Amino acid sequence: MSEVKIVRKPRYDGRIKKRQWEDRRSDKGAGLDPTKSKLIKKETEITGELLEKIKRRKFAVLLGYSGTNYYGMQRNPNTPTIEEELFQSLYKNKYISQENFTQVQTMQFQRAARTDKGVSAARQVVSLKLPENVEVSKINENLPEVIRVFGIKRVTKGFNSKVQCDSRSYIYLLPTVSFIPYEQMMVQKGFRVDEAVLDRMM
Questions:
Q1: pTM summary value
Q2: Which of 83, 99, 159, 179 lies at a CB distance of 3.0 to 4.6 Å from 155, suitable for a disulfide?
Q3: Are residues 190 and 143 in the same domain?
């Protein structure tokens, strides 16, 4: 007959917990910075460097751009877009991590509206998580002149620029020469549409 071995779990010793709690209190009393203990540190598998996880908050970013040489607002692989330029600038300033750059959903990125190829925006709003020390001037330093960030404002963590946008305004522009009959000969430079055609179009 095989022998049955009974394994007993060690009894809970509250003195150990108390000692650990007292050690933590003595660390604070020794002048150690309590905020340091709150920083989450992790070691990267590639470089082995010790990195501090930066605490990020939700922000709304107001920007404007000329979309003439871009394939729209939304990021698209291997094509120049407004979002790609914005993400590149944020990454260069270390406002977002490599993971945020490759997977934008990790920073809760959202846009209030999308624009198509060649379309510009006088005002556009996006929302995402950024460090509290973010600076508009530093973002603009790494952006093309045709893209500008006008302001950044802290918002609630549940804010979503797409869902909470209450209106969108679009303006469509085209040259008045487009209203001239196809068969009519004209010179485009210096052209002005006459009142009769303008009244008919209105």
A1: 0.66
A2: 159
A3: no
